[in-house]
Every structure is written in C-alpha cells, then in structure tokens.
Amino acid sequence: MNNEINLVELALLVIKKIWIVVFSTLLVGILAFLYSYFFVVPQYQSKGMIYVDNSNMVSFPTDLSLSKDIQYADMVASQRLATIYIEILKSQTFLNMVSNDSGTDIPPVKLSSMMTILSKNDTEILEITVTYTNPHVASVLAETILENSKTEIPRIFKGGSVQIIDHANVPVRPSSPNHIKYTAIGLVLGLMIGVSIVIAMDLFDNRVKNQDDLTSKYDYPILGSIPSSISVQKVLKAQFNEKSEGERATYYN
To answer: What is the DSSP string of 133-178?
Structure first.
C-alpha cells in the first residue's frame, strides 16, 4: 500500500476499525477520570480582599484647571502603588511574619508559591488567594495575610492605611482537580491514540488486499487476475442453483 493516505481513505479506514477508536477513547477517558479522582490531591482556595488607602500620602493643588491631570496622575500612581503593595506582601520579611503568626511554620518560599495577589482593575483593591491541600489552613493563612497587611503596608508607606473588605473564607469544595476537564482531555487523547493505532496497523500491513493495492505498490500493469476460492464457490453455487431451477421447471412441464 502507498504510504500516503488521503482523507477519504482515512475516513473509510477509521470506520472499518471504529471499534478500536471507540475502545481507546473510552479507556483513556476512564483512566483520566480515575487518575484525577484517586491520585490528584485536591486543592482548596481561600480568598480575601483589602483596600489600601493612600489619600493621606497625596496632596492636591488648589488649581481646578489641573483637576483632570491630577486625576490621571493619581490613577497612574494607584496602579504603580498596587504593584508595590503586592511586592511588599510577597517579601521575605512579611512571609516570615505570616508563617510565624499563623502557626503553620510553612517556609516563605513555599508560602509564596501558594499565594496569588491581584489588583482589581488596577486599583488599590487587592484580592488575596491562598491555595492549599487543607481548607482550614488555607483560610488561616489568608486571614493572617489580611491582618498583617494592616500594619506592614503602613509601616513602609507612611500615611497609608489598609482596610479589610472581605475576610478569608473557609472553602467547602476543592478548586481542583476539575474531573470533567481531566476526563475531556482523556477522551480527546484516547481518540487520537485510537486513530493513530488504526493508521499504524494499516501502514505496516504489507498484504495485498485488492488489484488497486498491487498497482500502487509495484506500478506494473495487471494482465489478469485469479478469483479467490470464495468467489469461485459463489459462482459455482449460483450456476448450480440456476441449473436446478431449470431442471425442476422441465420436470413440472
């Protein structure tokens, strides 16, 4: 068989061996679901939110004609300050404080990888998320970060203050793994594996199945063909049936 397979041949080939594709798809999909359910450790997310007020750090001029420029400058300053606030909350000093005050004694490096701090719409509102395998510990860590930020940020930025908008919640359900996502990926992967197996089986099958295979493989003209024994049997059976029907018709006449 020629090593090149067009789309029509591929479709016919897959349909012919569809049971392999279906079996592979279901098998890998089920294995992916079982893996996510029994082997992937569930992760829980606890979230809280703070607002950093820096109004006492900014002095506005009395010229009203500059109000638009002042508002724009204040917005840019807020965006830059939000980035600085995030870096403060990820500093080694602050993380050591959180580790000690929470009673978890989690190393700062690991604690940093568990934290996600985002500025809401580039404002001074910060959303703090802690991800951990234990929902209670995740909540304790998030709440400790919120409480300690009230003293740490004003310590560095004189005149600023921090208010807690949302306290840390205790997560009830894990945020990961997503069993549906794992299963969907497994089904797609299984489908690809099944199709690949069917194609590989056909490519490595050197048997000549019909006249077209022989022509494409050796590029020689076909002078004649010998029917298979099954075809011969069918022809002989058909001739025998016709002869028998003719004899029966003569007998009755």
So the answer is: SSHHHHHHHHHHHHHHHHHHHHHHSTT-EEEEEEPPP--SS-SB--
Across residues 145-168, what is the average pLDDT? 90
Asked if the structure places residue 172 within a domain, the reply is no
Domain that holds residue 99: 44-166
- Please determine, for residue 25, whether its predicted confidence score (pLDDT) is greater than 60: yes
Task: Categorize the per-residue pLDDT at 122 as very low, low, confident or very high, splitting at 50, 70 and 90.
Answer: confident
Strand residues in 14-139 grouped as ranges (E): 44-53, 115-119, 125-132
**In the prediction, which pLDDT does 120 show?**
87
Q: Are 178 and 40 in contact (CB under 8 A)?
A: no
Could you tell me if 103 and 22 lie in one domain?
Answer: no
* 233/210 same-domain check: no
Q: What share of the chain is helix, strand, coil (3-state, %, to 5)?
A: 65, 10, 25
Whether 231 maps to a domain, the answer reads yes
* CB contact at 8 A, 132 and 145: no
| Domain-terminating residue out of 166, 191, 206 | 166
Q: Provide the 3-class DSSP secondary structure of residue 227.
A: coil
Cα separation, 40 vs 69, whole angstroms: 52
Asked if residue 62 and residue 17 are part of one domain, the reply reads no
Q: State how far the Cα of 45 lies from the Cα of 171, in Å rounded to an integer.
A: 6
Among 166, 199, 214, the domain-final residue is 166
Give the length of the chain: 253
